[in-house]
Amino acid sequence: TGLFTYDPGFTSTASCTSKITYIDGDAGILLYRGYPIEQLAEKCDFLEVCYLLLKGELPNGGEMKGFVTNISQHVMVHEQLSRFYSGFRRDAHPMAILVGVVGALSAFYHDVMDINSKEDRYISAIRLIAKMPNLVAMCYKYSIGMPFIYPKRKLGYAENFLRMMMGDPGDDYLANPVLVRALDRILILHADHEQNASTSTVRLAGSSGANPYACVAAGIACLWGAAHGGANEAVLNMLAQIGDVSRIGEYVNKAKDKNDPFRLMGFGHRVYKNYDPRAKLMRETCHEVLNELNLHDDKMFKLAMELERIALEDPYFVERKLYPNVDFYSGIVLRALGIPTEMFTAIFAMARSVGWIAQWDEMISDPEMKIGRPRQLYQGVTARDVKYISGR
Ligand code: CMC
């Protein structure tokens, strides 16, 4: 390959060094700052994990109190930004709106931002994490023509989000703690995942020195695709399409057929060649939520479990080490929470924002940082002369 290494899809290129997240894909291990995801999901809430990802250590009680206060000071969005929503068609996909409104934060926080200042970078991270639930819930409220619900400072992160999504000004929204915990767990499991496509996008955009909110908007755009964050929405659509356990075989065969572009959504991963540890935790949460809501006989969940069983026994999936990934069960949990399918990827974006901004901050503070600039192998025509149009 001459001067450059040709590596389509960057399957064997490390684009940076990082101290944030570690994955051992063969063993199915995921660590945030050295802590196993299973322990974080059991013993911490999402904001503790945010603190960990941003600062490198878990907070003690006092540090956590300060962090929560700091976040709660930034939960409101500028009223002018609220009006931004009305420029979108009501039937716009929430991810299309989210790309726009998060990018628009750069217009609100530009002059005050010096990316070379550690403090400015930290404040930009706090603002992003604080405002995302509000911005995401507003996408939904706008789509159904309901008034935006302001956040409540005293509520927890996940509870606040559920209230802004599901509540309305005419009622007192009372969140079920089991469901709040389930959403919080979804957020923890999606918070970071080293150099995935959207995080790499944020880093690449940020490597030019661009405003962090513009970079995060680029990450949101990348996350949208079905091969990445869009998979949670695609899984539910797929399950709905399969419709019945009796039709699973037909769809498994479709997924194996190389002349058919169909893939089993929520299956396979670039890095995990073993069970995705997040999928295991998500399946547990799925049981908890369905038990709590007396939905043991949920058709989608049964369908998903049977699909998993059949696929994991099939030589095609076994040989290629294709296991369920985090998005296989998260959609069923979100649906049980009453969240509409088209909002799933926006919730993934809300969770991943901390990872994006922590990785952006790590990159900017790295003395070895350079603008990202991959090379190519040119395969076009060789040099030739231009003729005037009359002679062509
Ligand atoms: N269904 C059927 N076949 C599959 C699937 C699938 N879901 N995933 C991979 N394969 C096959 C693929 O056809 C190929 O077969 P062969 O070697 O015979 O050509 C082999 O497995 C390797 O696949 P690949 O496309 O080379 O692997 P990749 O690392 O480029 O792709 C992936 C990883 C996640 C994009 C892919 O597995 C996929 O499309 N999965 C479905 C979408 C999905 O669930 N995405 C969510 C990923 S996890 C959350 C996130 O990151 O956002």
What is the name of the CATH architecture of the largest domain? Orthogonal Bundle
Helix percentage? 40-55%
Mean pLDDT over the full residue set: 95
Q: What is the number of strand segments?
A: 3
Gap between N and C termini: 35 Å
CATH class of the largest domain: Mainly Alpha
CATH topology of the largest domain: Citrate Synthase, domain 1
Low-confidence stretches: none
Largest sheet at a glance?
A: 3 strands, antiparallel
Count of the domains: 2
Supply the CATH superfamily name of the largest domain.
Answer: Citrate Synthase, domain 1
Compute the number of helices: 17
Q: In one word, what is the shape?
A: globular
Write the layout of secondary structure elements.
Elements: E1 21-24, E2 29-32, E3 35-36, H1 37-43, H2 46-55, H3 61-73, H4 79-84, H5 94-108, H6 118-144, H7 157-166, H8 177-190, H9 197-206, H10 212-223, H11 231-242, H12 248-256, H13 277-292, H14 299-313, H15 315-319, H16 326-336, H17 344-364
Antiparallel strand pairs: 1-2, 2-3
Helix pairs in contact: 2-17, 3-6, 5-6, 5-10, 6-7, 6-17, 7-8, 8-13, 8-16, 8-17, 9-10, 9-17, 10-17, 11-16, 13-16
